[in-house]
C-alpha cells in the first residue's frame, strides 16, 4: 500500500540525511485522512532509518490514554535500547511532576490551558525538561536519533509540552522528530501547531488518497503485466480493474488493503472490486475507519447510510437535530477518507457496513425521522415509503396514501417485492374499510407475482368482504384472476355476476376483461361470451383501445374462437411490439404470446419469449418469469428443439414449485413429459407424471394439453388403451368447449398413432383425414405430421407423394425433429425404388444431420401391440436398402465447389485456376465426389447435383 508514497518517503529520507550530515535537527509532520497510511509510512521510514545507522524511538497517541500524563514520553524512553539506570532519573522526575499536573476536565480541553496552571505549581518542570532533553542528546551522540510519534491528535498534553521543549532546541542536534496526525473535525492542539510552524526546520508532508494511476501501478506490479510484457490488452484490463477498486474504496489505503486481503484469503468468489461476504475484512475496515474519527463523524455516516441517497447538509442537520453548519466538517472528514462521493456513501458495501453498526432502535428512529422530513420536503412517494417500511411507522393521515402511491409505482416498475412491503404497512395504516380492501387487492397482485401460494388466504378474505359489503362489489373483480389460477371458477363467476351488467368506461372494461378471462381459462363458461362476441372482437381489433389488457385477452380469445376480420397473428405481434419495453407489462404480454402459440407461430413465440426473458425486471417476478418460460419451452418443443424445451420447462418449475402453479401446472409438466418421452427417457417421463395435478386442471385448456402429453407417454410404453382413453377424453373436452383447435390440441393425430401401434391402419387413416379437415387452427406442423403418418397407411405410389408434401410442409414450420422423421421415412421409401442416393441428398438439402433423432419406439405401424421400449434404447437400425448416413458420405464445401464447376463443363486445369488449387487437388476432390454421388463420369454430375441446388445457391 506504499504505492504513491514515494515523494513523501523521499522527503523523510532527505531530512534524515541532512540531520546526519549537517547536525541540524529536523521536525516533520505527516498528515492525512484516517486510513491514509500514516502509520505505515512512519514504520517504513523507521525501518529505513535504523538500517541507515540511526536510532529510532517510537510512540503512539491513543484516545483512551489521553488523560495519562507523560504517556507518550514514557513510550519514547522505554523504546530506547539503553540501560535502565540511564533513564531512571527521567522516570523519577516524570512520576513527581505527574502528581502536580491537574487532571483534564470538560472545561479545559487544550494542552495550553492545562500546562499554564501546572508550570507555576512548583519547580519540578524545568529539571524534567532539561533531563529529558539531555537524555535524548546523549542518545544522539551514538548516531542520528529519530523520534516518531503516531496519532499526534491523541497525545497527552504533558508529553506535548516536553516535545515542544525538545523541538525548540534542535538547531545543532542530530535529532529528527517525525509526527503523524489524522484529519479531525476541529484542529487538535492549535497552540502546539503554532509553535511547530514557527520552527526554522519544520516541514509538513501530506498523504493524499490513492489515485487511478496508483492502483494501475499496484495491480501491474502484482500481475507483472505492465512491467514485464508490456501487453496493451493486459494494461487495459488492469486499468478497468483499477477503476472498479477506486469506485469501492475511494483510494483509501486501509480499505484497499482490506479488499485485497479478502481476495487473498478467498473470503469471496468474486473479483476484489465487486465486494465480498457481509461482515468480512472490508466491512471491519470501514468501521475501524469510522471509529477512529470523532463520534460526530460516525453519526453523519450513519445518517447517510439511513438516507441512502445524496443529502444536503440541511437535510442531515434536520435528521440529526444539529445545526447544518456543524455537518460541514464531518462531511469533509468523510470525503477525505474516501468514504463518501457526490453526497452519499460511495459503495453498497460501505453503506451495509455502516448501517449494520447502528443499533436497531436507533436505526428505526432515524428512518422514521427521515420519512417525516422527506415528506415535508416534497420527496417522491417511493423514497418516503422506503423509510416508512424500514421504521414500521403508521401514525399520520398522510402515511397510507404515500404507501399506496409507492406501491403503484413499484408494481409498474416490476418490483412486486417492494410493492408488497408498502402495501402490508399501508393496510395497517389505513382506517377506511373500502380503501383497505383496495390495498388488499393490490397486495394480492404484488404477492402473487412473487409467490402465488402466499395469496390464498387474502383472496378468500377479499371475496368474503365483497359478499358482506355490497358497496364494494368491484373490489372482488381484482381477485378473479387469482381465483381462476387456483381453479375456483364458481367463486370467480359469482364475483363477476355480483358486479351487474356491462356499462361504459373503465369499470365496464374491467368487467368484460374478467368475464373473458373466466371463459378462456375455464371454457365451461364460454357460453356467456359467445352469446355476445361483438364487444371482445371489437376490442381485439381496436387500433387505440381504452384497455390494453382487454385487447390482449381478446386477441387470445380470437385465437381460440376465430372471428372474421381479425388477424390474430398481426394483432398479437402489434401488441408485443407496442408494449414489450413497457415496465409492468408482463401480465399484458403473456396473452398475445399465448395467442401466437395457439395460431401455430411457434417461431415468433421463440423470438418474443427470448426478448421477454431478457428483461431485467423479470428477475423480481418469479411467477411471470415461470409463465413466460413455460410458453417459450412449449414453442421450442414445437420447433423440434427438445433440449431448449426441456431446460425451459424445468426452469419454469424451478421459478415456481408445482403447488404454486395451481391448475396451470399441466403446462410445464406436459412439455417436460413430451420432451422426455420423445428423447426415449421414459423412466424420467414417468417421474414427471407422478407429480400431482389438481382435478380442476382438467376443466382448463392446460389440462387438455396435459392429457395429450400423458397419452403420448402411455403410447410409448405400450399402454395403448390408457393412451386412447386420455386422447378420447381430450377430444371430448375441446369439442364440448367449442375450441377444437387442430394445432393446439391434435388429439386425433395422437389417437391415430395409437391405432397405428395397434395395427388398425384404416381407423388411423380416418382419424388423420379428419385431422386434416379441421380448419380451425390447422398449422403447418400439425398438417405435416398428419401427412407423414397418413403416408404409412397408403400404397407405395401415394406414400411417396404424401411424404414429399409432408417434408415440404414441415420445412416451412421449422420443426426439425418432425422433419427429420419425415426424411427418415422418405429414406426408407426411396431405396425400395432402387436408388438410395436421392434420399441422402434430400437429407442434406434439408440441412439436417445425417442421422435422424432416435425414437424410443416405432409405434406408427412398426411395433408389436403390447411391447414397450426402454429408456435409453439405442437408435433404430437403418432399414434394408438404405445405408445409415454419416457426415463423410456428404460433400464438403470444397468438394461441392469442384463438382459444380465440373458439371458446368470446366476442365481440371480451368477449375484449378479458378479455385487457386493444384490440378492434383482437383482430381482428388472429383474422385471423392464420384464415390459419394455414385457417378461414373462428368456427364452424370448435373443430374446428381440437382438435389443440391438449394444449398449451392
From TrEMBL:
Transmembrane segments: none annotated. InterPro entries: AAA_16, P-loop_NTPase, Sig_transdc_resp-reg_C-effctor, Tscrpt_reg_LuxR_C, WH-like_DNA-bd_sf. The keyword Nucleotide-binding applies. Residues 884-949 form the HTH luxR-type domain. Residues 863-873 have a biased composition (Low complexity). Residues 847-883 are annotated as: Disordered. Keywords: ATP-binding, Nucleotide-binding. The keyword Nucleotide-binding applies. Pfam families: AAA_16, GerE. It comes from the Bacteria. This is AAA family ATPase. It comes from Streptomyces durocortorensis.
Amino acid at each position: 500500500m506504499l504505492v504513491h508514497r514515494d515523494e513523501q518517503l523521499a522527503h523523510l529520507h532527505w531530512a534524515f540525511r541532512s540531520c546526519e550530515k549537517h547536525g541540524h535537527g529536523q521536525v516533520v509532520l505527516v498528515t492525512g485522512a484516517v486510513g491514509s497510511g500514516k502509520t505505515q509510512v512512519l514504520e517504513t521510514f523507521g525501518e529505513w532509518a535504523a538500517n541507515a545507522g540511526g536510532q529510532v524511538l517510537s510512540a503512539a497517541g491513543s484516545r483512551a490514554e489521553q488523560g495519562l500524563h507523560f504517556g507518550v514520553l514514557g513510550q519514547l524512553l522505554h523504546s530506547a535500547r539503553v540501560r535502565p539506570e540511564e533513564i531512571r532519573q527521567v522516570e523519577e522526575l516524570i512520576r513527581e511532576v505527574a502528581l502536580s499536573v491537574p487532571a483534564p476536565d470538560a472545561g479545559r480541553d487544550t494542552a495550553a490551558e492545562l500546562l499554564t496552571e501546572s508550570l507555576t505549581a512548583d519547580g519540578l518542570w524545568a529539571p524534567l525538561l532539561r533531563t529529558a532533553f539531555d537524555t535524548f542528546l546523549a542518545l544522539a551522540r551514538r548516531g542520528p536519533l529519530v523520534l516518531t510519534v503516531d496519532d499526534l491528535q491523541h497525545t497527552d498534553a504533558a508529553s506535548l509540552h516536553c516535545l515542544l521543549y525538545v523541538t525548540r532546541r534542535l538547531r545543532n542536534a542530530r535529532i529528527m522528530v517525525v509526527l503523524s496526525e489524522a484529519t479531525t473535525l476541529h484542529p487538535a492542539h492549535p497552540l502546539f501547531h503554532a509553535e511547530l510552524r514557527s520552527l526554522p526546520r519544520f516541514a509538513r508532508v501530506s498523504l493524499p488518497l490513492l489515485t487511478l494511476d496508483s492502483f494501475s501501478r499496484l495491480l501491474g506490479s502484482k500481475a507483472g503485466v505492465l512491467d514485464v510484457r508490456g501487453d496493451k490488452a493486459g494494461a487495459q484490463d488492469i486499468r478497468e480493474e483499477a477503476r472498479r477498486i477506486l469506485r469501492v474504496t475511494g483510494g483509501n489505503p486501509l480499505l484497499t488493503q482490506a479488499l485485497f486481503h479478502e481476495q487473498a484469503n478467498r473470503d469471496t468468489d468474486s473479483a476484489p472490486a465487486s465486494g465480498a461476504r457481509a461482515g468480512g475484512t472490508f466491512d471491519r475496515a470501514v468501521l475501524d475507519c469510522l471509529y477512529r474519527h470523532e463520534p460526530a463523524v460516525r453519526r453523519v455516516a450513519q445518517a447517510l447510510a439511513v438516507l441512502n441517497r445524496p443529502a444536503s447538509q440541511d437535510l442531515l442537520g434536520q435528521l440529526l437535530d444539529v445545526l447544518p453548519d456543524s455537518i460541514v466538517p464531518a462531511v469533509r472528514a468523510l470525503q477525505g477518507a474516501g468514504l463518501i462521493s457526490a453526497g452519499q456513501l460511495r459503495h453498497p458495501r460501505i453503506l451495509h457496513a455502516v448501517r449494520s453498526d447502528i443499533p436497531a432502535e436507533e436505526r428505526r428512529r432515524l428512518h422514521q425521522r427521515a420519512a417525516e422530513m422527506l415528506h415535508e420536503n416534497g420527496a417522491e412517494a417511493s423514497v418516503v415509503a422506503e423509510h416508512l417500511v424500514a421504521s414500521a411507522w403508521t401514525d399520520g393521515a398522510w402515511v397510507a396514501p404515500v404507501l399506496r402511491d409507492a406501491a403503484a409505482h413499484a408494481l409498474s416498475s416490476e418490483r412486486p417485492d417492494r410493492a408488497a412491503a408498502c402495501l402490508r404497512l399501508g393496510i395497517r395504516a389505513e382506517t377506511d374499510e373500502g380503501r383497505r380492501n383496495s390495498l388488499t387487492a393490490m397486495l394480492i397482485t404484488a404477492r402473487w407475482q412473487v409467490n402465488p401460494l402466499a395469496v390464498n388466504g387474502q383472496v378468500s378474505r377479499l371475496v368474503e368482504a365483497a359478499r358482506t359489503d355490497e358497496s364494494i362489489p368491484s373490489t372482488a373483480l381484482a381477485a378473479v384472476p387469482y381465483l381462476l389460477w387456483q381453479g375456483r371458477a364458481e367463486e370467480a363467476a359469482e364475483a363477476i355476476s355480483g358486479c351487474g351488467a356491462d356499462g361504459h368506461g373503465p369499470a365496464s372494461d374491467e368487467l368484460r376483461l374478467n368475464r373473458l378471462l373466466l371463459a378462456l381459462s375455464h371454457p365451461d363458461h364460454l357460453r356467456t361470451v359467445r352469446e355476445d362476441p361483438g364487444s371482445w372482437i371489437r376490442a381485439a381489433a381496436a387500433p387505440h383501445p381504452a384497455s390494453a389488457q382487454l385487447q390482449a385477452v381478446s386477441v387470445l380469445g380470437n385465437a381460440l374462437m376465430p372471428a372474421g376480420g381479425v388477424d390474430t397473428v398481426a394483432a398479437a405481434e402489434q401488441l408485443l411490439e407496442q408494449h414489450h419495453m413497457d415496465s409492468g407489462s408482463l401480465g399484458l404480454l403473456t396473452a398475445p404470446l399465448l395467442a401466437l402459440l395457439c395460431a401455430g407461430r411457434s417461431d415468433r413465440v421463440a423470438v418474443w419469449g427470448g426478448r421477454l426473458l431478457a428483461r431485467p425486471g423479470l428477475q423480481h417476478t418469479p411467477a411471470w418469469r415461470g409463465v413466460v418460460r413455460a410458453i417459450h419451452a412449449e414453442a421450442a418443443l414445437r420447433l423440434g428443439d427438445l433440449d431448449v424445451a426441456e431446460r425451459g420447462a424445468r426452469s419454469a418449475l424451478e421459478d415456481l414449485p408445482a403447488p404454486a402453479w395451481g391448475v396451470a401446472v399441466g403446462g410445464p409438466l406436459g412439455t417436460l413429459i413430451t420432451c422426455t418421452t420423445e428423447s426415449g427417457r421414459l423412466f424420467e417421463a414417468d417421474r414427471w407424471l407422478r407429480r400431482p395435478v389438481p382435478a380442476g386442471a382438467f376443466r382448463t385448456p392446460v389440462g387438455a394439453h396435459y392429457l395429450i402429453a400423458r397419452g403420448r407417454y402411455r403410447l410409448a410404453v405400450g399402454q395403448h388403451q390408457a393412451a386412447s382413453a386420455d386422447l378420447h377424453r381430450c377430444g371430448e373436452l375441446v369439442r364440448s368447449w367449442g375450441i377444437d383447435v387442430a394445432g393446439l390440441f391434435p388429439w386425433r393425430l395422437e389417437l391415430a398413432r395409437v391405432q397405428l401401434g395397434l395395427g388398425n391402419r384404416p381407423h388411423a387413416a380416418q382419424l388423420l383425414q379428419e385431422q386434416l379437415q379441421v380448419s380451425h387452427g390447422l398449422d403447418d406442423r400439425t398438417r405435416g405430421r398428419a401427412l407423414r403418418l397418413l403416408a404409412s397407411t397408403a400404397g407405395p405410389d401415394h406414400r411417396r407423394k404424401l411424404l414429399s408434401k409432408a417434408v415440404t410442409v414441415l420445412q416451412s414450420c421449422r420443426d426439425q425433429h418432425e422433419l427429420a422423421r419425415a426424411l427418415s421415412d422418405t429414406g426408407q421409401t426411396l431405396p425400395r425404388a432402387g436408388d438410395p442416393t436421392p434420399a441422402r441428398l434430400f437429407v442434406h438439402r434439408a440441412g439436417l444431420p445425417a442421422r435422424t433423432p432416435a425414437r424410443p419406439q416405432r409405434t406408427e405401424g412398426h411395433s408389436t401391440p403390447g411391447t414397450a421400449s426402454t429408456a435409453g434404447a439405442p437408435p433404430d437400425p437403418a432399414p434394408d436398402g438404405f445405408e445409415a448416413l454419416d457426415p463423410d458420405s456428404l460433400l464438403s464445401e470444397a468438394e461441392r465447389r469442384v463438382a459444380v464447376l465440373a458439371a458446368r463443363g470446366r476442365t481440371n486445369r480451368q477449375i484449378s485456376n479458378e479455385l487457386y488449387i493444384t490440378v492434383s487437388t482437383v482430381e482428388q476432390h472429383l474422385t471423392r465426389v464420384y464415390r459419394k454421388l455414385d457417378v461414373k463420369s462428368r456427364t452424370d454430375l448435373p443430374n446428381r447435383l440437382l438435389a443440391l441446388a438449394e444449398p449451392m445457391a
